[in-house]
């Protein structure tokens, strides 16, 4: 028995140096006494060289317990997938030998290349399923279940063609992915100045709706709006440019629905006192324009605001690193295979944010009717170079994707201001004049400028494999955008009453309101639900 144990130890040491890495499992052989003599013959041929080989550590206690309680899972099946070509290095395995688990001192191994009737192998299922770590068959590419795909580890000679695939438009691409996600995002709101005020009954006309006066209440404005959730969708389509999945290209487009906020209140003459506040540059004090006041005027005042965000981009990805391994799962001690890959990204990015803010008064007085409109519209368009990295880790049926990108470029800021007053006097035709209340000839127009901007993006997505090709996903995205223009920031409440239609002729006083760019930072974040299909 001592001689047999020494022969087994020597043979195991020789196999340890000649077996390929990343194969784990357990093989159990119970054979007749003739097997011991056959093993002795093989071991004696290698005893001289094996004596100088390093010895592997003894199995730990938990490994012995695992072997003692091991039960076979399923019968071995014939595998047609070709094995990687053997090399002459110390990690090669002689033809016909199979290692189904970590080889330690005292292990019984099998060197014949076939299985006896009734013997079983414990190995993983397709795509690194929950059955173990020795995956037999399946896709071995780095973005699926490992880096051991024949011919793709180093893109050398092998059964897999590892060249480029220029046929992208004239024939169907062989490898790619497409995903669609429903977006539930939240954005940075729009700031507004006080736009509509009210005063209690009995307020004198001079103090009606004037900010800072006792009893004046701000009905709309003086806060942040459009902070509710944004609904939208995101589509991503990608193609691998080579068989080894080391080069790829991906396009992306997302859009949110138009989010809106509105206010409207009607008060006839003698009803609630309503007004639109402003700062009178002639008197240097707060003032207001009446919307409803007893025996003077009555009508409706309304405010509408909306916003929409959309973006697109295209990026090339390059495989930087990948690997695979085997480890215990969180909820049990069953080993499970995992893979991971890191890609570098570089490409182009476009974003567009549009805001609209409009105010309208429909007034009726003893002198006639008035329809007064102010409109502020902004559009921020970003164009820049996008670069970053993405990381994917696959474990069993689960995948985890992490994304970090930074876009550097310019934002085209466009502000459009317009206003009008339609007056219909009793017994006369309607006349239209340029200018409302906060939009006058002094700030009406379209303004453009370019500003340097950065757009970092962070993302995480958890996926579960429903079928061989389909994943269900849930994710989180955060996007920050510097230097954008919002409609509410472009409103100036400094007004010269001499500009109100009909304008005083000759005009006297400062030309207010005046336009001045006011930009700010913007962010949006939220969760997404969707699916990804890979082929």
From TrEMBL:
<dbReference type="Pfam" id="PF07585">
    <property type="entry name" value="BBP7"/>
</dbReference>
<protein>
    <submittedName>
        <fullName>Uncharacterized protein</fullName>
    </submittedName>
</protein>
<dbReference type="InterPro" id="IPR011446">
    <property type="entry name" value="BBP7"/>
</dbReference>
């Amino acid at each position: 028995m001592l001689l047999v144990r020494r022969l087994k130890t020597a043979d195991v040491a020789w196999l340890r140096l000649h077996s390929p890495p990343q194969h784990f499992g357990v093989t159990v052989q119970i054979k007749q006494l003739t097997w011991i003599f056959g093993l002795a013959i093989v071991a004696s041929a290698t005893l001289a060289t094996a004596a100088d080989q390093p010895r592997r550590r003894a199995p730990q206690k938990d490994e012995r317990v695992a072997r003692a309680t091991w039960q076979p899972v399923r019968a071995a099946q014939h595998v047609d997938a070709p094995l990687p070509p053997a090399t002459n290095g110390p990690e090669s395995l002689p033809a016909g030998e199979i290692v189904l688990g970590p080889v330690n001192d005292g292990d019984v191994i099998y060197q014949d290349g076939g299985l006896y009737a009734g013997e079983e192998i414990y190995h993983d299922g397709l795509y690194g399923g929950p059955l173990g770590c020795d995956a037999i068959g399946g896709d071995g590419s780095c973005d699926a279940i490992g880096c051991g795909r024949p011919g793709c580890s180093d893109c050398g000679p092998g059964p897999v063609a590892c060249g480029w695939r220029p046929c992208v438009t004239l024939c169907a691409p062989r490898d790619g992915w497409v995903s669609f996600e429903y977006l539930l995002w939240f954005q940075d709101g729009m700031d507004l100045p006080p736009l509509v005020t009210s005063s209690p009954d009995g307020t004198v006309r001079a103090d009606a709706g004037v900010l800072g006066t006792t009893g004046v209440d701000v009905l709309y404005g003086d806060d942040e709006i459009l902070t509710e959730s944004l609904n939208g969708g995101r589509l991503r389509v990608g193609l691998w440019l080579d068989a080894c999945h080391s080069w790829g290209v991906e396009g992306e487009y997302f859009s949110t629905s138009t989010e809106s906020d509105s206010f409207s209140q009607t008060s006839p003459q003698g009803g609630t006192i309503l007004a639109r506040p402003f700062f009178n540059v002639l008197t240097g004090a707060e003032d207001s324009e009446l919307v409803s006041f007893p025996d003077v005027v009555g009508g409706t005042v309304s405010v509408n605001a909306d916003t929409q965000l959309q973006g697109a981009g295209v990026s090339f990805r390059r495989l930087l690193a990948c690997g695979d391994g085997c480890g215990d799962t969180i909820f049990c001690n069953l080993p499970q295979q995992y893979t991971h890959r890191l890609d570098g990204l570089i490409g182009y990015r476009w974003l567009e944010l549009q805001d609209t803010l409009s105010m309208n008064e429909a007034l009726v007085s003893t002198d006639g009717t008035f329809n007064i409109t102010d409109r502020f519209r902004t559009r921020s368009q970003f164009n820049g170079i996008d670069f970053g990295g993405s990381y994917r880790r696959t474990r069993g049926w689960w995948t985890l994707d992490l994304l970090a990108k930074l876009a550097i470029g310019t934002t085209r800021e466009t502000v459009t201001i317009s206003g009008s007053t339609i007056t219909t006097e009793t017994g006369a035709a309607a006349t239209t004049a340029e200018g409302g209340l906060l939009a006058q000839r002094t700030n009406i127009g379209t303004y453009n400028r370019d500003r340097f901007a950065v757009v970092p993006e962070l993302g995480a997505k958890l996926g579960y494999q429903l079928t061989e090709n389909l994943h269900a996903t849930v994710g989180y995205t955060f996007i920050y955008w510097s230097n954008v223009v919002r409609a509410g920031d472009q409103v100036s409440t400094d007004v010269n009453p001499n500009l109100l239609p009909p304008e005083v002729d000759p005009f006297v006083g400062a030309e207010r309101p005046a336009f001045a760019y006011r930009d700010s930072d913007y962010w949006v974040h939220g969760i997404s639900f969707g699916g990804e299909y890979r082929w």
